[in-house]
Amino acid sequence: MNDPSHRLTRRRFTALTATAAAAVPLGLFASRASGAENPRDWRALTEAQWRERLSREEFEILREAGTERPGTSDLLHEKRAGTFVCAGCALPLFSSKTKYDSRTGWPSFWKPLEGAVETREDRSLLFLVRTEILCARCGGHLGHVFDDGPPPTGLRYCINGLALKFEPDAGAAS
What we know:
By secondary structure, the chain is of the alpha+beta class. The protein has helices spanning 10-34, 39-43, 47-53, 56-62; strands at residues 82-86, 92-95, 99-100, 108-109, 117-125, 128-135, 141-146, 156-159, 164-168. The longest helix is centred in the first third of the chain and has 25 residues, at 10-34.
């Protein structure tokens, strides 16, 4: 009962904690392969893991809050019925039913799917405060929201096309 080899010492606790922490990324890729997506797992990815998953351009936008040149996204003219998902973690973000042509050069939507996005204040431009839009699952930068959109919300979610992938509805015309 008082065998010292079974006591939880500080050193042993630290070693066990480090081992458990090292196992998290390994479990993350197993869950990805099985389709089980845990939001906490996505936030635990390292910069190197994101660089492995994303193209250089996607990484710049999603992980470094970059912006693609206006008018360059293939999704700008996507008109099929379907869902726009995060290019980083595949979380459904916007329905094609809420997409509209804002004439800004970026895919625009008047409403995200419930619980799909988070917002935070963006002061990266001198003298301008904007509202940044992030993926609720992986925290990837998507774009910004402005109050000059159409009814019924009056909002314009101006999203980088490289932050999105499009999944057409089954039977949607190509």
